[in-house]
Amino acid sequence: QVQLVESGGGLVQAGGSLRLSCAASGTFSTMGWFRQAPGKEREFVSSITWGGGRTWYADSVKGRFTISRDNAKNTVYLQMNSLKPEDTAVYYCAIKEGLGSFHSWGQGTQVTVSS
């Protein structure tokens, strides 16, 4: 089973930036980033296909977040700019193959944006 390790979270002021990383121990077809704020359900943030680099974004982060991949390092990045307090959440990465469901969730990394 592929292991995922997230890193890069932290505390930042509104308007600031953070870059999250998700390193995978194996291969996959698509990696996604999700987040869960206290008292809320986990929500989709962004995803990228490993082969073609096709990307998807939630409307709430379009234009502010950028997902990218480094094939040599088996790592996906989430560059988060113009952060808002409502971006505060635990961010998780997960993977899937084809049209299947996301699985192999990482341990999560906390992102806190102060106003």
Description:
The protein is 0% helix and 50% strand. It contains no helices and 10 strands. The chain has strands at residues 4-7, 10-13, 18-24, 30-36, 43-49, 55-57, 65-70, 75-80, 89-96, 109-114. A 6-stranded mixed β-sheet has the order 2-10-9-4-5-6, with no helix packed on it. Strands 1-3-8-7 form a 4-stranded antiparallel β-sheet, with no helix packed on it.
Walk me through the topology:
Elements: E1 4-7, E2 10-13, E3 18-24, E4 30-36, E5 43-49, E6 55-57, E7 65-70, E8 75-80, E9 89-96, E10 109-114
Parallel strand pairs: 2-10
Antiparallel strand pairs: 1-3, 3-8, 4-5, 4-9, 5-6, 7-8, 9-10
Task: Pick out its properties.
115 residues, mainly beta, 6-stranded mixed beta sheet, 4-stranded antiparallel beta sheet, 10 strands, 50% strand, globular
**Termini separation (Å)?**
40 Å
Q: Spans of 5+ residues with little confidence (pLDDT < 50)? A: none
Structural class: mainly beta
Average residue-wise pLDDT = 95
Largest beta-sheet details: 6 strands, mixed
Short synopsis of the structure:
By secondary structure, this protein is mainly beta.
